Amino acid sequence: MVSRSAEPRDSRESRNGSPQLDAVSLAIIEQLQQDGRRPYAAIGKAVGLSEAAVRQRVQKLLDQGVMQIVAVTDPLTVGFRRQAMVGVTVEGDLDPVAEALTAMSEVEYVVMTAGSFDILAEIVCEDDDHLLDVINKRIRALPGVRSTESFVYLKLKKQTYMWGTR
Fold first, then answer.
1. pLDDT by residue for the chain (166 residues), tens digit each?
2. DSSP of 60-108, one letter per residue?
3. Which whole-number Å values give the CA distances from 27 to 38, 42, 68, in the listed order?
4. pLDDT the model gives residue 17
5. pLDDT of residue 76
6. Which neighbouring-strand residues pair with 111?
7. Within 10 Å of residue 135's Cβ, how many Cβ atoms?
8. Quick check: 134 and 125 in contact, CB under 8 A?
9. How far is CA 33 from CA 9, 49, 165, in A?
10. Whose CB has fewer CB within 10 Å in the chain, the N or C terminal residue?
11. Is 165 helix (H, G, I), strand (E, B) or coil?
12. What does the alpha-carbon distance between residue 17 and residue 129 come to, in Å, rounded to a whole number?
């Protein structure tokens, strides 16, 4: 006989190994996306769980890598005046180049793609000289990098992190 608890399960694994989240876990994530410092008691009231149950679910979501709770800064206000997306074309295996890019402190985002570029990397730098140094002396110097194309950000119109539960 299968026993069923009164409290809903917070997640199960899908066929690809990633957690499938129930409606309550998604609601907790939404609450934290609105305010990452929201008290567990307030979240519990909003989603219908106790403070302890919310604390357990949040910890499980963190442990599973489903979410992170971080402070997001505006790069301009903390001294990083130049951002760019850099398209990288690679000859041979993409993994060593992607790994080298992820190790660079100026690189915030790395994705392997299909299309004109093999890898896209978002770069955040102090100024144009810093960006030039990262692209010219570090990225282009990586073994396997055939070419790069830079897309300098002139103005950021939208940046959101709310897509996780829609």
1. 333 333 445 555 555 566 789 999 999 999 998 899 999 999 999 999 999 999 999 999 999 999 999 887 777 778 778 999 999 999 999 999 999 999 999 999 999 999 999 999 999 999 999 999 999 999 999 999 999 999 999 988 887 776 666 5
2. HHHHTTS--------GGGGT--EEEEEEEEESS-SHHHHHHHHTSTTEE
3. 13, 12, 15
4. 61
5. 76
6. 120
7. 21
8. yes
9. 21, 18, 9
10. N
11. helix
12. 43
All residues at 6 or more sequence positions from 19 whose CB lies less than 8 Å from its CB, including other chains: 11, 12, 13, 64, 66
- CB neighbourhood size of 118 (10 A): 20
**Own/partner pairs for 64-70, CB < 8 Å, 24+ apart?**
64/11, 64/19, 66/11, 66/19, 66/21, 66/25, 66/29, 67/29, 67/32, 67/164, 69/32, 69/36, 70/36
| 6 token code pair | 């009164």
pTM: 0.73
The position carrying tokens 């890019």 is 101
Cβ within 8 Å of residue 32, ≥6 positions away? 38, 43, 58, 67, 69
